[in-house]
Amino acid sequence: MNRLIECVPNFSEGRDMSKIKAITDAIESVEHIKLLDVDPGKATNRTVVTFVGTPEDVIEAAFRGVKKASEVIDMSKHKGEHPRFGATDVLPLIPISGISMDEVVEFAHKLGERIGRELGIPIYCYEFAAKEEKRKNLANCRAGEYEGLKEKVKKSEWKPDFGTAEFNTRSGAIALGARNFLVAYNVNLNTTSVRRANAIAFDVREAGRVMREANTISGKILKDETGKTLRLPGLLKKVKAIGWYIEEYGVAQISMNLTDISVTSVHEAFDAVEESARQRGIRVTGSELVGLIPLNALLSAGKHYLKKQKRSVGVPDEEIIKIAVKSLGLDELKPFNPKERIIEFLLDADELKPLVNMNLQQFTDRTAEEFPAPGGGSIAAYMGTLGAALGTMVANLSAHKRGWDDKWEIYSDWAEKGMSCVNKLLPLVDEDTKAFNQIMEAYRMPKSTDTEKELRKQAIQAATKHAIDVPFRIMEYAYESMAVMKEMAINGLQVSLSDAGVGALAARAAVLGAYMNVKINMPDLEDKVYKAEISERGLKIEQAAIALEKEIYDIVHSKIS
Length: 561
Description:
The chain is α+β, with helices and mostly antiparallel strands. The protein is 51% helix and 14% strand.
């Protein structure tokens, strides 16, 4: 899975489109960045920009956007309804896939250090990136806004985390954060009553409802000894919610902001609203996603509802997403197209998978052509993918076998393990060919001067190591998948024994074929320690795969003879 993060900077300009475009052009000047949304607001005089990419590309694009904003926005002349204290007011980084929050925090601090050093803009880190407790809250960092910043930066307790403690008249300051993905999500009800919708919203939102005497709507509001209003907390953490009526659709909705979907997921919010509505005689009819969502959020939802149906979750992502969309009713009000609403699907990933996206005839023809790639490494990856897919198929068939209802979860777990190997192996079909092409590009680099020779040598070594690493990963994942085939040969659906056996044969071929590609690249690599380690580990995996395949083969033949 690719490492992806999202950045959602808020720039203090929402009226001059030429300035906004200058900023977004600077962001898009980083080649592999995907600009997802630009949302200017005239009243707030503020523009929210959303873009996504690899961590390295995102922080480079963020820096360029901040730099351009410091050039075109003058905060001393800025007016707007939204709280603000900088030309780039807030700059949050958000993990999307393949990266932990701790890693995102490191990237945020790296970006903050560079902005402070090169642009002289004070940086305050908030949420997960905060360096002290009181700075976790964005409102605390921005308190006093731009007008109070001149005195604020002088105070020892508000010394910037990065940059100098000097007032930057033109650019103000930046709140740089690392936070979880926020999902704007509405649940549809079969009522037009806002009052009843609000009652449900109060049940589920973290803030809950105000406590009153006798627990009645008209009762006196209760307060503690300090005069603070008492509240009865709601069911869901990190959730803000309110009930409203949508005239366009003629229904009431529970409008929610899920501010941390690692704490409360989309499906948990949906189920909580559904239960509260049921208790009040109201039925949930569907839901609506506002904006974009990470792939994993819908995969988690789909798996949740598959498990409630006692069905295997070890199925392709497309099927899991379909179950999520139908279970949540995301297509009730208007069509829901995953390719337009899931962040990862918007990154034109198909352009990175030219071989995987071919049909079987095209892939066969491309392999047979008079070109060295795709070659043995890509074919090994595909054999491994097919082998793992066969093992997964047997596990899924076993999970659905009549009379085995008490064992569905066991087989679902095995199917999920198999599908994990499929998902790791399939991208390596293209990755192996890319690795070969990188070696060829490195050898074509100029070598006229000593500097060029050194750069060429470094590029060749890096590309060669990558060309070894890719088939080695094919070995690891193909061997890992063989555990599924063994379990299915022993305890899976016996009419599919041959499928488990063929899966093991394909996986063994993938391991041995990939190891050939590891070894053929070894002579050109100068890193002796790495070569020795890979050679030793590779030999162990090869021998283990041969032994395990024979074990599976013998099990299958003993049962079908």
